[in-house]
What does this fold into?
Amino acid sequence: MKPSDFLEIFLGILTAMGGFVEIGELIFTVNAGAKFGFRLMWVVVLGTIGIILYGEMAGRVAAVTHKPVFDVIRDDTGPTLGAITLVAANVVNLLTCAAEIGGLAIILKLLFGGNYFLMIVVGAAFVGLVTWFIDLDTIERVFGLLGLMMVTFMVTAVASKPDWTAVAGGIVPGLPVMDTNMDLANYAYFAVAMLSSIMLPYEVYFYSSGAIEDQWTTDDIPMNRIVVLLGFTLGGLLCGTLVIVGAQAFGSRMIEPELAGTTALANAVYLGKAGLLLGLGGMFFAMGGAAIETALSSGYNLCQFMRWPWGKTVSPSVFPRFTATWVIVLMLAMLIVLTGVDPVNVVEYSIIFAVVIMPLTFYPILKTANNKVTMNRHVNSTFTKVLGWFYFILLTIAAIAALPLMFITHSGKG
It folds into this structure.
């Protein structure tokens, strides 16, 4: 492995922090722990394996064909269905970006006080300036490393002294004892929402686009596997940690932590003020990384589909349509939360709509990775093909169930 290859690991770290541990993950995993204890831990395992599979295939396809996700989607589905997928994907990106901006504002208000709406503008300006002036490699390194402050939640989870037998038991899928059908519907809603939050497709849009920007070839396929395994496994561990924190810190006290900033209070209980500040800092950079990813992913998606030049490795003025797209998405995201809408509601819609469209973006990558003519010796193995079809069927079922569950349960509120 070349010394420069180790820098690619930062892409995986950023993806793990911004893709797994963003505001949607914080809200759904911690609330799932508070409501159901460790019973949904199996979704963490299922989702982590799924995003490793999805990311590895997308990275391998990019390395072999030199095509990122929306190039593949247009070639496979054609301009009409591809355009529908593009619009839906970028609407989800916009909602997700808005939720992250709202989350940043909450963290800034908790840290420094001041007016919430002013903090929205400050948070959006921070994300915009970083994205405009700082190169992608530096963003990956800085946000990836500072996002590692989220590891304090692992310490909190251990310090809370959970029943590790019960934690391990939650890895086995099963239905808990429910008093009513509504309890069962809430359980199913949180299972679908957690799966979606772990496998959010913008993670893969960003990841495969980064592979193209870094000019990956087939020689980079081993590094691709290392990156997705390291980054997404770390994200999965953090996700499982948040379920434990939700169960131990909030579920045992009959508290429903609906605001993203509430999660950091668990660190304060077990680690004191230092733990609180580190938790808030980690959350800030995780959400900031997610806001950058979703804004850039919108530009990547549109330009790839339209066959326009794109890239973050050059000055913003070089590819004006790419730059204009992510700037407009960021500004619209800021305006959405400036209306006063609750970021939690925005998160819920973005997560549910994400799972609804996920089969449309997953299938073209799976189909291309299965194509021996296109992929040659880098085609999916028999095991990967079977696993890929399993996840496609699973995601399709989740997509069909997502909206009805959202309406029946009033977004998990019963």
